[in-house]
Fold Olfactory receptor.
Amino acid sequence: MMWGNWTIVSEFVLVSFSNLSPELQALLFLLFLTVYLVTLMGNVLIILVTTADSALQNPMYFFLRNLSFLEIGFNLVIVPKMLGTLIIQDTTISFLGCASQMYFFFFFGAAECCLLATMAYDRYVAICDPLRYPIIMSRRACAQLATASWFSGFPVATVQTTWIFSFPFCGPNKVNHFFCDSPPVIALVCADTSLFELEALTATVLFILFPFLLILGSYVRILSAIFKMPSAEGKRKAFSTCSSHLLVVSLFYSTAILTYFRPRSSTSPESKKLLSLSYTVVTPMLNPIIYSLRNSEVKSALRRVIRRTLGPHKL
């Protein structure tokens, strides 16, 4: 579509993994489909178990349930379209579809960063101030913290997406990625984007780096408190309550920071795709596995739920 001297882009083409052979793309489809189904089932199971079992009605599992909802949303935004590009070569995405995908990617990503920081604060209070923990982390306070984490995604998603798609796209429409992330889309803009890039860097610092520093500060205090405990059993129990969260944070933030804080020239598009796969596809699958395998309370609750469902003689 022509407008003046510009070609107005009405759809985009996701390059995805089109440089690979059809056979390898088919294998990737089966792999990512398996990961996708495991992610959905694992996170739904976490939601059901933490809701149904009375022993898991505390702030830590309330926030874990919210994290599972976020991971499901994150996956639904990214993976189905990626699977389509692999199996039926459905690489086109409409202008509105690309904007919608980017909006919800920003929304769920920012909300997850804030929720992970909230979960770290919960562990900090539980270990460093256990006597006041029931008062500080009351049901109302937990609901407010979770709500704030969810709503934190709205401003960054609205500003970033609206700003990007208000730019003129007047030439190539191939997005060198498997979803509509901002760096490959902004590369197609035919206008000065320096002001936007400054705003994007600020938003990245606020919604990725700042929560990460809060988490880091919380765990410095947590580890300091654990090392001061007199008994080895107390240290073990205290560390076991936060080890799963620490592992999830490490997986999520290591790849996110490598993706968004490295200079463009030092990272190829293919390596960025691999890094993006880590926090958009792999980490959401690992979260329920980590919390299930490393948490005895979740495993015990899962057995109780299965026993109630199938009957005591069928477990």
